[in-house]
Amino acid sequence: MKYKKILLSATAILLLSACNGGGQPLTAMKDTTEIVNNAEQDREKTTQAAEEETVNDEDRIIKSTVFESNDGWQMTYNPTNVEATQVDDHSAKFVYTGEGEGESLINVKYIQGKQPEAVLDDLTSEWGKEELVRENESFFPGTYDKWAYWRVLPAMGDLKESHSAIAGEYNGGVLLFECVNHKTGKDEIDMAVSDILSNILNSVSYQNFEPQTMYSNIPGTYNATDGSEIKTITLNEDHTGTLTADNDIQVRWGSKEIMSNDGSVRYGYTIEGDSLIVDYEGATVTLNRE
Predict the structure, then answer these.
(1) Hey, what's the torsion of the CAs at 90, 171, 239, 194, to 10 degrees?
(2) What are φ and ψ of residue 229, in 5° steps?
(3) Is the distance from CB of 142 to CB of 12 less than 8 angstroms?
(4) How many CB atoms lie within 10 A of CB 277?
(5) What gap in Å lies between CA 244 and CA 54, rounded to an integer?
(6) If 0-12 CB within 10 Å is exposed, 13-18 middle and 19+ buried, where does residue 226 land?
(7) In this structure, are residues 141 and 176 in contact, taking their beta carbons and an 8 Å threshold?
(8) What whole-number distance in Å separates Cα of residue 207 and Cα of residue 170?
(9) H helices within the chain, ranges in order?
(10) Between 19 and 58, the higher pLDDT residue
(11) Using CA atoms, how far apart are residues 83 and 287, in angstroms rounded to an integer?
(12) Which DSSP symbol is given to 138?
């Protein structure tokens, strides 16, 4: 359970980075794993700070409002600086109303009839500058065992607004989060807006998040047949796993890569029937499902 809490903390920091839309690129799992290694220490500092807080808790609770959607998700926001609107039966938006420039907001949509990457392709084509869009995969917001695809277009040069989007399979459709953050050039204001948006996104919870089926053919234990350094790879349903070579390496897996928790190694892979085919240090290793 402790590890799951750390993963949630890591995802929370990634959400902050996504809503900020700047800084260094989010390169697949490397950023996530570095965050996981430090998240427990950060969580303890946050807990200590919370215990020392002297602000009246009753006032804070009054300022928090829960938005409940028709599609089984909910988010918490502060109505003193954010306006929440139900756009239609399957979409909502949270618009920052405090000091800043432009319209900084979070859009949430439930979409049926498409795959997550197709939804993201449609959205990022509207952003323009597609050559600058960074791609990533990580855990779905508010979960430690569901998977999502991430896209980020950072604010840079003459582009004064950042865009980020997260989409994943959700209860027979796709749940899409889009964050737009307009930059003022004033760090204090820009970070405050980023914090507010990321806190809303990080507050998401679900009444019933059904198992994702698009990865159902992947979990299992696979054994090598060709005498390679890799002996066994176990991929669990919650996107964790173990790669056994000379030693056991704890890993996480996405739709295309298997990567160690410490970010030191990552291997592309494909699934063909009951075979797991891994690009391992310049060689192709085939492992068969038990």
Answers:
(1) 10
(2) -65, -35
(3) no
(4) 15
(5) 50
(6) exposed
(7) no
(8) 12
(9) 2-20, 30-52, 57-63, 116-127, 187-202
(10) 19
(11) 52
(12) E
* C-alpha span between 167 and 245 (Å, rounded): 34
Digit-coded pLDDT (tens) for 227-258: 788 999 999 999 999 999 889 999 999 999 99
Going by C-alpha positions, the residue among 169, 131, 171 that lies closest to residue 151 is 131
* 240, two tokens: 């964790």
| pLDDT at 264 (0 to 100) | 83
Tokens at 269, concatenated: 């892979």
pLDDT at 18: 59
pLDDT at 111 (0 to 100)? 98
In single-letter form, the type of residue at position 28 comes to A
Region of 185 on the Ramachandran plot (φ > 0 left; ψ -120 to 50 alpha; else beta):
left
pTM equals 0.79
Percent of the chain with pLDDT over 70: 78
Please report where in the chains the tokens 């948006």 appear, as a residue.
Answer: 197
Lowest mean pLDDT of 5-9, 197-201, 240-244, name the range: 5-9
Q: Decide: 197 and 104 in contact? Cβ < 8 Å.
A: yes
Rounded CA gap, 181 and 194, in Å?
A: 7
Alpha-carbon distance of 190 to 98, in angstroms, equals 11
Per-residue pLDDT reduced to its tens digit, 128-143 = 888 889 998 989 999 9
179, 199 in Cβ contact below 8 A?
no
Q: Domains (ranges, CATH) in the chain?
A: 2-206 (2.60.120.1690), 220-289 (2.40.128)
d(CA 7, CA 160): 31
Cβ atoms of 235 and 218 closer than 8 Å: yes
Rounded to the nearest angstrom, the gap between the alpha carbon of residue 204 and the centroid of all alpha carbons in its chain is 12
What's residue 131's pLDDT? 86
pLDDT over 50 at 10, yes or no: no
For residues 78 and 172, give the distance between their C-alpha atoms in angstroms, rounded to a whole number: 31
The fraction of the chain above a pLDDT of 90, given in percent, is 58
Task: Give the tokens for residue 152.
Answer: 């980020």
